[in-house]
Amino acid sequence: MTRRFTALAALAVVCAGVELVAGRGMSPGVAWDVLHGGGDATERHILFQLRLPRLLVALCAGACLAVAGLVLQSALRNPLAGPEVTGVTPGAVLGAVTATALGLAGWDSPLAVVLAACAGGCAGAALLWLLAGRGRGDPAQTAVHGVLVSAVLGGLTAMVLLVEPGELGSVVQWLVGTTEGRVWEHWHLLWPWALVWGVAAWLLAGPLTLLRCGDDVALAAGLSVPRARTLALLCAVALTAGAVAGVGALGFVGLLVPHLALAVFGADLRVSLPGAALVGAVVVCGADAAAQLSSRLLAGALDSGRLTLPVGALTACLGAALLLVVVRRTPSRSF
């Protein structure tokens, strides 16, 4: 396990280094010079005020989504219970967009956006819990209800944007998912939120392990299943809301990264929860670096001065492709 954590940490450092120099206006030589105290004022501003907070926000948001996904899948005993397909992410987006349209929050006040996103995420999770009813333990039924809830919440978000079209430009990035324009204010708000709820999720590793074994086993072990599941869902919603408020709705990160973490670190959630956080950070950071490099290549090929590929579009495409590969390789498994 130590070697695996070390290898992933080294991979995270590599991805972080690539992301720092992947965008426009910063070559590896210039970045190295700035890090050693050189460079002019513009280069120092780009690296320390734009690139570095963007990197840290990407790492933290990826960790949040991965831990939230693993907590959801463990609490609901559903391999498809990611934040994206359980109404949590669409609910968080709807809450933030609605609060902004009503003037209760603004994109210049990240704390208000986080609170609005958390309320929306709780509402989305509660709606799924009510619709699933007695079949909430069935992975197939929970997945179907989750897709329906997500579709309804997405439609409500579109309606809010139609009523307040002036908010469309400032909200599109949250609907797709991007780390563009993230500054130190986003980082200073996100990391304490992620730390508190991440520690809370890790403290629930024992109850979550029992929940993965089934409600009967958990009850026989003396666990209060409703209370443990409620606390787990609260942690997952809070982590998702923080990530959505920071980078928007990144697709498939919370759905697929937990499977990678369990494959690498095993079923012991005391180990796999921190492992999922590290894997999620690597995935989002690597995807953001790839998106910036792709933007530079596409801008050069199309002779476009300003072309930006959002990281959410890349994670959605790659995640969908990976999910199709997994389903095709295990045709006998019920999803």
From TrEMBL:
Compartments in which it is found: Cell membrane
PANTHER family, per database record: ABC TRANSPORTER PERMEASE PROTEIN MJ0876-RELATED (PTHR30472:SF25), FERRIC ENTEROBACTIN TRANSPORT SYSTEM PERMEASE PROTEIN (PTHR30472)
Pfam families, per database record: FecCD (PF01032)
InterPro entries cross-referenced by the UniProt entry: ABC_BtuC-like, ABC_transptr_permease_BtuC
First-listed, main subcellular location of the protein, grouped into a coarse class: membrane
Statement: the UniProt record of this protein carries the keyword Membrane: yes
Protein name in UniProt: Iron ABC transporter permease
Keyword terms: Cell membrane, Membrane, Transmembrane, Transmembrane helix, Transport
Keyword Ion transport on entry: no
Membrane topology value: Multi-pass membrane protein
Family: Belongs to the binding-protein-dependent transport system permease family. FecCD subfamily.
Residues that span the membrane, as ranges: 55-73, 85-105, 111-131, 143-163, 190-211, 231-256, 307-327
